[in-house]
Amino acid sequence: MRELPHWHTASAQGPRKHNADAVGAYAASGGTGIVFALADGVGDHPKAAHAARTAASAAARAPAEKGAVEAVLAAQRAVLQLGGAGDCVLVVAVQSGEGYGIAWLGDARAYAWDGYTVRQVTKDHTLAQYFRDHDQPVTPRMEHVVTTSVRTAGAHEIGAATIKTGGLLLTSDGVHKTLSGPTMLDILGMPDRAATELVRTAISLGGSDNATALVVDPPRADRTTEKFRVAA
User: Fold this and answer.
1) Is there a domain that residue 228 lies in?
2) By mean pLDDT, which of 71-75, 83-87, 91-95 is the weakest?
3) pTM here?
4) Residues 210-226: pLDDT tens digits?
5) Which tens digits make up the pLDDT trace of 140-158?
6) Backbone dihedral angles phi then psi of residue 100, each to the nearest 5 degrees
7) What's the total number of domains in the chain?
8) Could you list the residue range(s) of the whole structural domain that residue 211 is in?
9) Taking phi first (over 0 means left), then psi (-120 to 50 degrees means alpha), and beta for anything else, what does residue 137 get?
10) pLDDT tops 70 at residue 81
11) Do the domain assignments include residue 86?
12) Which residues lie closer than 8 Å to 97 by C-beta, 6 or more apart?
């Protein structure tokens, strides 16, 4: 059985009435690895929170050997079975070799983190990103309008990427839309405290949303080589 990575997570409600963020992680006995999931409910109400918890749990319980896209589809099936109107966005990371397969819907993000550099590997499914891709002006409101979600997306709309490093950061937009890349990089250098500090700092800097982070520590770095730390 593959050795499981060391990981930690934190979440804060912030100024919202409900914390509609959720995380999940699961490694099946005798399985091939671990599945991580972070979901962010669409809206500030109990149905959004329920959808996020359902999606994160279903995605994390999906068989790791089937990959990240199948984990997102499992989350979608679970949310659709709820009925009602609750919805969420989602990012999933499935351990694959020394890295991770990534799949996502909406604006939950995954970053590669190797102990020295942090790099965003997902691309937001938002109206703002769509306009940027088409060289059109963007307004602040567009940053918060998602173009895909767990309840509504087709399978062909699921984003997919890979991370080759052993470290990983998953965030809800309450973290990454408040903190800059260099700030996140500095905080990631705090062993066992990074997730808590990412969330605490985002809220303290005026974040107006729920803030959630899941940090998977990279393997122990080579102490004989000095490297510069870079956020991209």
Assistant:
1) no
2) 83-87
3) 0.92
4) 999 999 999 864 433 34
5) 889 889 999 999 999 999 9
6) -145, 145
7) 1
8) 19-220
9) beta
10) yes
11) yes
12) none
